[in-house]
Amino acid sequence: MLDQRATSWVAATLALAVAGCSSEGGLVPVSGKVTYRGQPVPGATVLFMGDENTRPTTAISGSDGSYSLMTLDSRGAMPGKYSVVVSKTDVPPDQGEPPSMEEAAKLANRPPPAVKQLLPAKYGDVTRTPLQFEVTSGPATTFDIPLTD
C-alpha cells in the first residue's frame, strides 16, 4: 500500500506529465495578412490542411486582413507542409424581425438564398489551391497571402 507522501508524489508526477503533453507543445505561431487585388480581406476563413502527421489549423482574418492560426484551442500550427484554403462568402443580411407564420409558409418551399463566393474558386478548394506553405520548427512565422484572379 502506498503511503500519503508516495501518493502525493505519484499524483504530482502525473500532473506534470499531463501538463507537458498539452496541445501547445511543438506549435509554431503563424500569422500573416490576406489580400485580394492588393486590398485587405476582412472576414476570410484561412485553413491550413496538412498531411496525416499534422492537424488542420484555422483563422478568420480581421478588419485589416490579418490572421493568426489556431490549432484546436492553442495558437500556432504544427511543423509540416500545408495546402492553404482561403474563402469568403457573402452572407445575406439579416432581415431583422422573424417572418410571420404566413410569410414563413410562403418561403418554406423556396431554396435558401445562394451563398456568393467573394474570392476566386481556386483558393477555396484544397485540391486546386496554388497556396502551399511549410511551417518549420522555431520562431514565429509570417505567411502573407496575396490572392489574385
Draw up the topology in text.
Blueprint: H1 4-20, E1 30-36, E2 39-40, E3 45-49, E4 57-60, E5 66-68, E6 70-71, E7 74-75, E8 80-87, E9 89-90, H2 101-107, E10 116-117, E11 132-135, E12 141-142, E13 145-147
Q: What is the CATH T-level topology? A: Immunoglobulin-like
Cα shape: elongated
CATH architecture: Sandwich
Q: Output the radius of gyration.
A: 22 Å
Q: Portion of residues in helices?
A: 10-25%
Quick one: how many beta strands?
13
Mean pLDDT reading: 83
Please, how many helices? 2
Helix-strand category: alpha+beta
Q: Terminal Cα separation, in Å?
A: 71 Å
Query: What are the segments in which pLDDT stays under 50 over at least 5 consecutive residues?
Result: 1-23
The arrangement of helices and strands along the chain is HEEEEEEEEEHEEEE
Number of domains: 1
Q: Please state roughly what percent of the residues sit in beta strands, choosing from under 5%, 5-15%, 15-25%, 25-35%, 35-45% or over 45%.
A: 25-35%
CATH class: Mainly Beta
* Main sheet attributes: strand count, strand direction, barrel closure: 5 strands, mixed
- The name of the CATH superfamily reads Carboxypeptidase-like, regulatory domain
